[in-house]
Amino acid sequence: MPKKTMTFEDAMLRLREVTETLEKGDVTLEESVKLFSEGAELSRFCYEKLNTAEQKITELSAAKTEE
User: Fold this and answer.
1) Which tops the pLDDT comparison, 1 or 5?
2) Closest Cα to residue 43, out of 63, 20, 14, 67?
3) How far apart are CA 58 and CA 11, in angstroms?
4) Is pLDDT at 49 greater than 80 in this prediction?
5) SS in 3 state form for 28-61?
6) Whole-model pTM?
7) Which of 46, 20, 55 has the alpha carbon at shortest distance from 35?
8) Which domains does the chain have, with CATH numbers?
9) Residue partners of 26: CB distance under 8 A and separation at least 6
10) How buried is 10 (Cβ within 10 angstroms: 0-12 exposed, 13-18 middle, 19+ buried)?
């Protein structure tokens, strides 16, 4: 599971590493499952970060138009 202190950029970098490793196919089935699971968690983490940023931008934009 991604650490709470992990940044979006760190998570994306690790996700890229996981994806490249899986694409090479040089790992065992068990390791592939672990990597896939880690990748899914990283993907969720990134999605949540992006969603939070989008909400904040929407709120800031709405506040700006109300002025």
Assistant:
1) 5
2) 14
3) 24
4) yes
5) CHHHHHHHHHHHHHHHHHHHHHHHHHHHHHHHHH
6) 0.82
7) 20
8) 8-66 (1.10.287)
9) none
10) middle
